[in-house]
Amino acid sequence: MLDKHLKRRLNITFRIIVILVICGTIVHLFPKAGSFQYEFQKGSPWRYETLKAPFDFPIYKTETELAAEREKITEEQTPIFNLKTEVKEKQTTKFTRATEKYRNAYTAAAIDQIRNKLAALYNKGILQVPEELDPSNIKTIKIVNHNMGKDVDFTNVSTLKKAYSAMTQFIDSSNLPASVKEHILSLNISNFIHPNLEFDASKTHVQLLNQLKNISLTHGLVRNGEIIITKRELVTPEKVKLLNSLKLEYRHNAGSYASHLRIIGGQIILTLTALIIFSLYFYYSKKRIFYNNKEFIFLYGTFLATVMLGSIGYYQSINMLALPVLFFVIIVNILVGSRSALYLLLGSSLLISYFAPNNYMYLFMQLAAGIVSVFSLSQLQRRGQLFLSIFLTFLTYTAVYISFILVQEGEISLSHVFGVLWLLINSLVLSLTYPVIYIFERIFGFTSEITLMELSNPNHPALRTLTKKAPGTFQHSLMVANLAEEAIYRIGGNPLLTRTGALYHDIGKSYDPVFFIENQSGGINPHDQCDFDESARRIINHVTQGVELAKKYNLPEAIINFIRTHHGKSKVKYFYNSFRNKYPDRPVDEAAFTYSGPDPISKECAVVMMADAVEAASRTLQDKTEENITALVNNIIDGQLQDGRFMNAEITFKDIDGVKRVFIEMLTNIYHSRISYPKLKQTEQPDASDNASPEGNHPESPKA
Fold first, then answer.
1. For residues 583, 589, 592 and 596, what is the CA-based torsion angle, rounded to 10 degrees?
2. 2-30+286-444 fold
3. Which of the residues 270, 429, 560, 669 has the least number of beta carbons within 10 Å of its own beta carbon?
4. CA-CA distances (angstroms) from residue 668 to 618, 629, 662, 677?
């Protein structure tokens, strides 16, 4: 008893630790800055009370304003040129030598003036504008000489073309003789004009980067207590700028250490609330799942994975609409059930909306699309049903998204069309759930509706083997499947799981089929040659052999449970009673006549146990009237109930009464009384069609 209590405490402790770890992980993902709790749209009235500045905050420039300022600085940048002093000396000396032969007493003064003009141009600076610069945008340049720079008006320096023009005009206007002018011009003045200002692209780029870096992100300040916007005031572009500035300040400024702790505390409470809602459902409604380690890890792991998937949009700047947060909801819906999927949807959506820019819209979208997805897959029996569900999910996403846009902005723009495309990508990714389901089935031991549909096919190797070796048992299994499926449908449960489990519950009889009466023919019964305990052992072995055969064919655990539990811990009463009657004084080894169990733990397994016993016993009735069938059904099921076969199963007395009514109804219809077809008198010539039943039966066959 101590070990049992200790094990229970360890299980509870383990689950608490898992929940706390998940809580800590999610809280770690949350932004640590304060949250701006208002939603607003430009052109719409302010829906909240008058908003005052909770603290001093700057007015941030919009991205459009910053972009315009960056563009202006780039266009009006001041290029940097390095002064090459040796160019002036070289070119003026070169000019002097070239004009020496024209120098005399009459021309010396004029030639010196021309040389001085050339030197003056070099003093101001001569440059060649690089291709990456637009001369029309250059207002000033920076000339660097010996690490000393000075800004110069661009109009005060000369380009090569401007310098050449200035020199030719000066020579033409000089008082030199015409012949001397021609000789000097023939020297090609451009040979003496070279740039002495060299563009420094590297320094210019660094300077530009520094200027861009130093752009002020703000202009103006809102003081603490200053009214930002009043109730029902129209949200103008200026108000949008103020509200966005406050929102941005909340995100960038976590405040004091105490404020930081309060934010984390609030996030912990929010996360624990969502996890507690999620946990309470499983603890009170699905205890079997809650205490199953694999299923517990699967469900809480998908919860964490869903929230982490939703946080990607915040940290990676991915559009939230493109994130397939319903991915794991669909998987849980198919593998566990719609109610579990709904609680996963509710808990995770409450937390994921924390990351979304428009919290209310995003939460509404996820809940609406998630509910459509869950209920459209509540009974998955065809592969195409999954893709239809995803299509309906996309339509729901789109309808809610467009509706919110129309309500908030009153029009649809191109950016909103891109939003629909993101939703389409979201839905396309959801289609990948189909191959992923198989992986989760293998890892965690779940059985999807798709797998059950495949297993219920009579052409499955295990069922084909049963049909060949034990045809009577196969027919019995079909009858049990029909009874159990209808019963579980009436009382609530999984009809497909029940039918599939019923088809496989007796596959162990394929090992020794002749030891079971439904497979015997010709009046030969091998039990006549066996002792009672040996016969009981042969009968009991079909359960363990069935489990071995199921594992050989890789049947899921959910189906194997039907094989293990369809007799529970009941006795092989025929041979047990026969032994007691024949040897009243001999001690009885109870275990030799008792199935190893366990008893059913699910509603579906319990119904198959009832159907198995009732169907087998109904074949022994000589007079199959409604009264006899009713008495038989009540006696068998009441006997199982008294023996405690259903103590561990999730089934109520009301459910058991409902199962009885279904069995009585169906067996009465199967074994209803029939009448014989009358024969024609011998005086008339019989016609073949008169003696044949509508179903093509023998003339002596009773009418259905």
1. 140
2. Arp2/3 complex 21 kDa subunit ARPC3 (1.10.1760)
3. 669
4. 10, 7, 10, 21
